[in-house]
Amino acid sequence: MTGRALAGNKVLCGALGIAGLLLVMEAAGRAGLVDPAVLPLTSTILTRVAELAVDGEFLANVGATMTAWGLGLLLTVAVTVPLGLLLGSLPKLETAVRPLIEFLRPIPSVALIPLAILIFPDRLDLKIAVIFYASCWPVLINTMYGLQDVDPVAKETLRSFGFGPLAVLWRVSLPSTAPFIATGVRLAGGIALILAISAELLAGGSDGIGAYVIKAGSSPDGLEFIIAATMWAGILGVVTNSLFIGTERRLFRWHAARAGVTR
Amino acid sequence: MKRPGSHAAPRAASPSGSRVFLRAVLRLWLVPVALVLWEAGTRAAANPYFPPPTTIVVRMRDMWLTGPASRLWLSDSALENFPPSLGRLFAGWAIAGVIGILLGVMLGRSVVLARFVDPLVHFGRAIPPPMLLPLLIALMSIGTQMQLTTIVFGVVWPVLLNTVDGARYVDRQHVETARVFGFSRGQRLWRVILPSSMPKIFAGLRLSLSLALILMVISELVGSTNGIGFQLRAAERAFDPPGLWGALVVLGLLGYALNLAFFTVERRVLSWHRAAKQTT
After folding, report:
1. For the segment B247-277, what is each residue's pLDDT rounded down to a tens digit?
2. Mean pLDDT within A177-192
3. Which residues of B touch A226 (CB under 8 A)?
4. Contact assessment for residue A21 and residue B119, using Cβ atoms and an 8 Å cutoff
5. A39 interface with B at CB cutoff 8 Å
6. CB contact under 8 A, A234 and B123
């Protein structure tokens, strides 16, 4: 079977796919199918991508975006995981709060940015606040969902050995919920990046990838830099996502087998 | 306030009615409490950025419900801004749905093709969609075309990835059976592969719908001359917190209604699927 022969070369196939697309785009530009003034040549863009990797100003902007991203996610986890554990272990409270969650969750998070612009004079606070609002939902929902999935026999066993509710939470519920929380945090990571960049585009601050792109838009060959910065945003997304997946795999190897069956 | 305990004993006279009522009270009692607390808290704080809900509701009526009865009381401002927003939202979602399902079935059924395209898909998905706004504004300037492109690009990924997943893991026995009975390729696609990927496709479409709302808002905030997002931005620039909150409330209600509508449709469309699963 040819599929079997190619299976070992998954990376090669992928690389060929990327290279093929880049070549086709370059060729379309050189052949005049796409006006290079409208869409720059692929080779030009790749040069800009490489240049940005050593451009101190751009790197500082990436740093600013990722700082807001990291702080926002940290705040989300610090507040939302305990909240989710609380709601998950008190079913009565959960039923009461559920409709509030159902009403708040569908508010499109980026719509809060204009309000946040009025409320927060500081741009970092603004970004952290909107990141927190947007990314708390997947973490909260996953934590609550994970708690429902805890093996009741394990809980009962510990209880019958005289462990208190907090000890049960710490020794059984939290470890067995952790993979779900991790999935929530990974989803939140992607959302947080969207919110950080949206806030930078709208709030017109002085730092961050979004601010960099707006500034680049006003220079004559700005389009090349806009595209290159967009590529870097994609690379950041891929890297953070695979870091999360890698950490999840390493930490929850014991869980992967089980999740593989149910998924 | 109504506490759950005070309704603990349902009357025997009409058990079903009072039980439904009791259940609703138990489920929803916090909503009026939260509203009252919100009103009281904002009145006490008197912070201009946090107007009381009553002020917001009055402002919303002034903005959108001053029209004649023949137009359902909708004002010009409502008719100028709501339909374009909804149109872009649904058009973007529909286009992304068609593209996502088409490509998804192709990639799901062809292992070799998927292998070549996989990294591109993962890269495309990882680009935060708002990043495209400056690029698209530079390429096609402000307008519906640019907004639609943003929405389509942003929401196509959940549909695509879910369809790939659904189409790839179709029960082999079903496909083989269809082949034995002489189904053509097209028939196998329509009768076997698409129906059995439906639950996955719907899951993707639901994710895409809420994402489409977010991208509709951001694309209108950055570059638009009408729409709810545009009004939101205008309220911010005019320093009009009640108007801003009003737009937020409308968007929240819209999100809630979309979720609910989708859930209802999904339940109806997929009911055969649950039934089929139970018999096997």
Report:
1. 999 999 999 999 999 989 988 888 877 776 6
2. 91
3. 134-135, 138
4. no
5. yes
6. yes
